[in-house]
Amino acid sequence: MADSFDGMTIREKLTEADRLMREVIEHLDNGFIPKARTLSRSLQEHGDNVSAMSDVTVRQQAAELIELNRFSEALYEKITSLLAAIDHDVSEVQGGN
Fold it and tell me: What are phi and psi of 48, to 5 degrees?
């Protein structure tokens, strides 16, 4: 993954890191967190009345959360690689490694 950032300047990498961070925030605020809250509220509302909420509904909502989590993890990995590339570039500019 770090190789895909090799041709970018430090400024371009910082701009891309900023864009990715905004994407993560938007994804969490508008996708993951609301879906997690919806599932949590649904489960709390039904409490011990398990027959009121079908297993299929719970599984479907949980599957959506799992998919959203995978997307979050992929973004996190990309940001981590990008920040490592930025760190490497800054170290080179400073005369380090």
Answer: -80, -10
For residue 74, name the pLDDT band (cuts at 50, 70, 90).
very high
pLDDT band at 65 (very low <50, low <70, confident <90, very high): very high
46: tokens are: 């039904």
- d(CA 34, CA 36) in angstroms, rounded, equals 5
C-beta neighbour count of 39 within 10 angstroms: 17
| Per-residue pLDDT at 50 exceeds 80 | no
Q: DSSP 3-state assignment of 97?
A: coil
Query: For the chain, how many residues are written?
Result: 97
Q: Which domain holds residue 14?
A: 2-93
What's CA 83's distance to the chain center, in Å?
15
Residue whose tokens read 């879906």: 35
User: Global pTM?
Assistant: 0.78
